[in-house]
Amino acid sequence: MTIRKTPPSPAFREYVSHFELRELVVKGRVGVRPLPARSAQLLVFHLADQSGSQIFDHRSRKTLRTPPAGVIGPQTFRAVDALWKGNFRDFVVSFQPSGFYRLFSLPMTELTDRIYEASELMGREVCWLHERLHQSASLNEMARLTENFLLKRLAAVEPFHAVQVASASILDRHGQVQLDDLVQKAGVSQRQFERKFIEQVGMGPKLYCRVSRLDKAIRLKEERPDQTWTDITYQAGYFDQTHLIKDFKLLAGATPSEFFRLITEGFAA
After folding, report:
1. Is the domain covering 207-266 a CATH 2.60.40.420 domain?
2. Architecture of the 2-156 domain
3. What is the pLDDT of residues 71-127, one digit of tens each?
4. Is the pTM of this model over 0.90?
5. Domain extents for the chain?
């Protein structure tokens, strides 16, 4: 998969992490990509032949078609696997941890572990944006079109709360934080901190730390497949390999070796 990214303009940096364009060609049999728990809140537009874009839902044991434009909430476990075949060109808006909540005033608990057709949450105007994105020639043009679409939301955003800083800190440090320190800096009670965190981010802060740490471990292995799991255990901030394996089983539905074998075999010719 080829991925190109571009940052948002200054006015949107509180709400949008980045924009990206993903391009992929899967020939032959269907490619399977297991999707572990992840913190990301995404708005995804399919810009190529969408007929091959499906997911396998482990909860219903059914294969489902992904929406042409979909909102993907944060995931607390491996709920689905992506099934890919054919040509893919997807434009993705990746939001800051509390960005979607602040722009659309929607508790993130309603999005957690779910995928929605974008128009259900954002109105029919998002369909107009989708058409314009189809006609766009560059990632930068797509980003500016999306910002124009989001511009009217800036006049009615939810107020800033300290959990925005706390969640960003957790992501930046891959879960290696002292939550008590973040609560103290937020200047609220622990109960209020957790309630606001779940409302804006979609999961509790402890689980968010674990998901962020797992994401770091997966990226380390993808960047350097030759690294041993022992090396990755400590680079990602795990106390020992037992804790790494425990999180993989809970959040990715497989041991580390099994998970990466699924990725390798899923895209074998």
Report:
1. no
2. Sandwich (2.60)
3. 999 999 999 999 888 888 999 999 999 999 999 999 999 999 999 999 999 999 999
4. yes
5. 2-156, 207-266
